From TrEMBL:
<dbReference type="InterPro" id="IPR036634">
    <property type="entry name" value="PRD_sf"/>
</dbReference>
<dbReference type="InterPro" id="IPR036650">
    <property type="entry name" value="CAT_RNA-bd_dom_sf"/>
</dbReference>
<protein>
    <submittedName>
        <fullName>Transcription antiterminator BglG</fullName>
    </submittedName>
</protein>
<dbReference type="InterPro" id="IPR004341">
    <property type="entry name" value="CAT_RNA-bd_dom"/>
</dbReference>
<keyword id="KW-0677">Repeat</keyword>
<feature type="domain" description="PRD">
    <location>
        <begin position="173"/>
        <end position="275"/>
    </location>
</feature>
<dbReference type="Pfam" id="PF03123">
    <property type="entry name" value="CAT_RBD"/>
</dbReference>
<dbReference type="InterPro" id="IPR011608">
    <property type="entry name" value="PRD"/>
</dbReference>
<dbReference type="Pfam" id="PF00874">
    <property type="entry name" value="PRD"/>
</dbReference>
<feature type="domain" description="PRD">
    <location>
        <begin position="65"/>
        <end position="170"/>
    </location>
</feature>
<dbReference type="InterPro" id="IPR050661">
    <property type="entry name" value="BglG_antiterminators"/>
</dbReference>
């Protein structure tokens, strides 16, 4: 294995005898070394093998702009997530999550915080990914002495969710089907209320995101069960029209929604139809 490109003292692009490329990291792996030199394999700590060419090229560009310690940190988070979730993640997670966490640390240094508007949904519907996000905050704090807010656990969870969804072998078919369902549901809401929805509003964006998560759960045959229908009964009375609209959507989907799913869908309908 020889050095093809040096990013910094601790990160290089290496090439093996079969001309396969790898991003390799290790303390001092490129110190006083040159392109064409043999890689000191005993110094290798982490190896990135990205099979998707586009993801690999973007990752190389990322290495030129982001501190090596951030890349190494995200590698550990992703490996931890793979072990906990027991699934393969799309190669782009190495690009998107690394870029996100590095920028989140930059904002933290500047005293800025990005609230996550979907935090309650992520906590409820993606508990495993959210727990990994919380663990990631511990990893980050351990390495940087910076404790990022809980919202960032939600953001990390979103990256993990997307990396799993985008791994689907039927991605094109799924997206096509989901897009049609999404449009049909939006039409049900529009015709029930006889209004034009404000597609630029925050509530519209939240509604769309909720539906996309909902479709993912349908694909995985996941159902959210509720231990208490008290809130749903209150919502039925308080948001009667939104609840009736939700029932139309349930009928269109030809499935029986759990109380929890009915509750959140009704609340989203109520929000997206308010001026």
């Amino acid at each position: 294995m020889i050095i093809k490109k040096i990013f910094n003292n601790n990160a290089i692009l290496a090439k093996d005898s079969d001309k396969h490329e790898f991003v390799v990291m290790g303390c001092g792996i490129a110190f006083k070394r040159n392109v064409g030199d043999k890689v000191e394999e005993n110094l290798i700590e982490k190896t990135f093998i990205l099979k998707q060419k586009d993801a690999s090229e973007k990752f190389k560009l990322l290495l030129e702009d982001i501190p090596t310690e951030h890349v190494s940190l995200c590698y550990d988070i992703i490996e931890y997530a793979k072990n906990i979730l027991g699934v393969e993640l799309n190669d782009y997670i190495y690009v998107t999550l690394t870029d996100h966490i590095s920028y989140a640390l930059k904002l933290f240094d500047e005293g800025l915080n990005r609230p996550n508007a979907l935090i309650w949904e992520i906590k409820k519907f993606y508990t495993k990914e959210f727990e990994i996000g919380l663990k990631a905050l511990e990893f980050i704090e351990s390495e940087t002495d910076k404790r990022l807010p809980e919202d960032e656990a939600g953001n990390i969870a979103l990256h993990l969710i997307n990396a799993q969804v985008n791994n689907s072998s039927n991605k094109v078919e799924d997206i096509t089907h989901q897009t049609k369902m999404l449009q049909d549901i939006l039409n049900i809401v529009k015709y029930t209320y006889n209004i034009t929805l404000d597609e630029k509003s925050l509530n519209y964006g939240r509604f769309i995101t909720h539906l996309r998560f909902f479709f993912q759960r349908l694909n995985k045959n996941e159902k959210i069960e509720s231990e208490d229908d008290f809130l749903l009964k209150q919502v039925q009375v308080k948001y009667k029209k939104a609840y009736e609209c939700m029932q139309k959507i349930e009928k269109y989907l030809e499935i029986e929604l759990s109380d929890e799913e009915q509750l959140y869908l009704t609340i989203h309908i109520q929000r997206v139809t308010q001026r």
